[in-house]
Amino acid sequence: MNGRIFEIREFTLHDGPGIRTTVFLKGCPLRCVWCHNPQGLRFEIETLRRKDGRAWVCGEDWDDDALARELLRNADIMKQSGGGVTFSGGEPLAQARFVCAVADRLAAAGIPSAVETSGYASETDYREVVSRMAFVYQDLKHHDSAAFRRWCGGDLGVVLRNLEWLRGSGIPFAVRVPCIPGVNDTPADREALKRLAGESPSMRGIEFLPGFPLFAKQ
Ligand code: SF4
């Protein structure tokens, strides 16, 4: 089956253990005002402009078999380093069946997968993808429903329902919070986010990621 991506980045070191290849899936159902990945927002293939004014086509369709074969070119390096493939975006769970198909092909070749997700997906899609993953980076962007709707454009309950399932799944995961000045970066916000993230034997911690500027739209 086909899926749509906008980048394959090889030899990444911060998207999971070991040396990895990160695949960026195109399209996201949320609209976080600080999003630093605008090429991942729209599901359509589009023409964007670089800072120097040159145009480039963002988005490319791949067959799951072809993408898995491309990713497996680095299989030896991944295996030697304890690495694998990370699915990022955009929102990879928005193309759940495609991610599952690629992950299954990688697993058959002995390569584990990880996913970076906002958690904004149906329970079915979330469980289908996440149950195939060796590690999950689960975003938690806000603790307050009204603020989440205002700043991200979605229903926080969807994320929390999936997070609750993840906590009980036994799958290793870390919660990631992008720290946005004026949105979720007070000490009280952090405490509320820690409480909401909860505890689980398979939780490897909560990461507060600094340095996300707030873009103009408010
Ligand atoms: S979930 Fe991620 S990709 Fe989607 S809008 Fe928010 S920051 Fe951007």
Outline the structure in words.
The chain is α/β, with parallel strands linked by helices and 218 residues long. It has one domain: Alpha-Beta Barrel (TIM Barrel), CATH 3.20.20.70. Helix content is 32%, strand content 26%. The chain has 7 helices and 10 strands. The protein has helices at 64-71, 75-81, 96-108, 123-130, 145-152, 156-169, 187-197; strands at residues 2-12, 20-25, 46-49, 55-58, 60-63, 84-88, 113-117, 135-139, 173-178, 203-209. The strands form 2 sheets. Strands 5-1-2-6-7-8-9-10 form an 8-stranded mixed beta sheet. The chain has a two-stranded antiparallel ribbon with strand order 3-4. β6 (84-88), α3 (96-108) and β7 (113-117) form a beta-alpha-beta unit. α1 packs across α3 (96-108), α3 (96-108) runs parallel beside α4 and α4 (123-130) runs parallel beside α6 (156-169). The longest helix has 14 residues, at 156-169. The protein is globular, with a radius of gyration of 17 Å. It starts with a strand and ends in a 9-residue tail after the last strand. The mean pLDDT is 95. The structure holds iron/sulfur cluster. Residues 28, 30-32, 35, 37, 40-41, 89-91, 118 line the site of iron/sulfur cluster (SF4). Iron/sulfur cluster binds at residues 28, 30-32, 35, 37, 40-41, 89-91, 118.
